[in-house]
Fold each of these.
Amino acid sequence: MKKRFIYAIALVMSVAMPVSLSSCDDDDDKNSVRSTSASTAADSLDYAADNAENWGKYMQAVATYLNADATELYNDWNSSYDGGASYASNFKSAGQAGASSFAAVEDATQQIIDGCIDIANEVGEAKIGDPVALFAAGKTTDALYAVESWYSWHSRVDYSNNIKSIQNAFYGTTNGTKSENSLINAIAAVDAATAADVDAKITAAINAILAIPQPFRNNINSNEAIAAQDACAALKDALEKIDISAIPEATLQQVNVNYVDNVVLPTYKKLAEANAALLAGVNAFVAAPSNSKFEALAELWLAAREPWEMSEAFLFGPVADKGLDPNMDSWPLSQSDIVAIIKNGDFSALGWTGEYDEENASIEAAQAIRGFHTLEFLIFKDGKARTVKD
């Protein structure tokens, strides 16, 4: 997830809002966000006859960009990157002068670990930590809007899948089993205690996240949310203690090859296929809108979302260099701009061209009105698929 630090977001839909908590209250209500039904001017922004055409075209535009980005990302790793060899070849050829951007085999393996450290930190400190900190500071509404994936109420699954992406990176598979040539086995061969500690803390972080009461946005200040944040911090600390210097180069080479072939490529292949299916579903909905097709779109979005979240332990290479991460996963969104687009039907601001520059304001603005979460907003409301209004 490309984190955008914008929390003063316009209220554009009916949302779960907190009960007012008095500063003199002493009961347990102060430790949770209670859900009530709140009506806002956003009710008029439901999918309806007066905006159906623009709504459908917006979904098509976003799904088209997602499909293109997912396809490009897979092709960069699998086929050719920037007109040369694939990024998979670049990674697996680490240490070979002229064949790789990695000067040593160990550098590529360390990149695997660093990617895992980054996402463990992001889940704990940003995805969970930002809402928790805002709530603790008394900024309850800001805390609610800082929660990623709140339109679909899919936050906990997203975050746990981020940690599972770490597990996949260390296990060298995507099915929860440990490959013979896995990073976790290579570490265990030289430091069994560290390997066991990392393995245990990965599982503990996954379980702690899933223990947060559903939905997370209604339980931001729960004890379980704090525990999940702590579990992610403990995992990050364990990952940072890993020392691969004693592992033979030949073993690291096997780890790197296995990681690319059995984790990265299958994950990105699934991402590309799922986003192609999502685009097809959007096109089918636009051709003949119905409640059942909204429900089908919700399932297709969830299916496309999973491999993306499972890839966040390797947000390096093409996904970072080309801005494909913020293209697909910027959060929070510019909801006021999204609402304006639904009303005016002008989708030109979604695209950008040229070399990616993360400091470019116009690129950032484009990324804030497209991607998974924009499509999530267009498909979901209050954790459920939207409906077709008369």
Note: The mean pLDDT is 90.
Amino acid sequence: MSQKMRAMKKRKYIVDTTLRDGEQSPSISFTRQQKIAIASLLDNAGVSQIEVGIPSESAYEKETIYQIIRNKKNAKIAVWSRLSLSDLQHCIDCQPDIIHISIPVSGIQIHSNLHKDENWIMEQLFACLELLINYRMKNISIGFEDAFRSNDDFMYEIINILLDFNIRRIRLSDTVGTATPSLCRHKFERLSVSAKP
């Protein structure tokens, strides 16, 4: 078999966020039974990673997530956290396969929405990384919130810290829908070149 044919047969991995993002749609709300059933259907269908929700949202949501994790078969179960020690602790309590942490990186999100600054983001980041190390949590992914309106230099700084902690999966989130194909290409190329090898 040629190298080209082997490349064509390479397995694709699906990350499904229905159980988290789906409830952000107007008038959509799942019951615990519906969430467990949806997760089971996705798992049985061969979805490799299911992002099931936000454990810090409520005790009810946390217990629902715990039940999904307990019932899973093959899929990796991911949970979502803000850049917050309390949020992260709720995630760790559930013992998921993956914890996804959202980090605000644009000035608008940091200054106007959170009323914080970049130094606060860095302090929170190191505190969260230390907590993850203490619990020996290794399978972490990061989402850069509002990445396409952000300062590239600030993202470079965070990326290189994450690489030092052996975190290799980073998502760029187009939080408010400002990205274009050309801007996406520009961001990915610049971030790839600027990050440490």
Note: The mean pLDDT is 91.
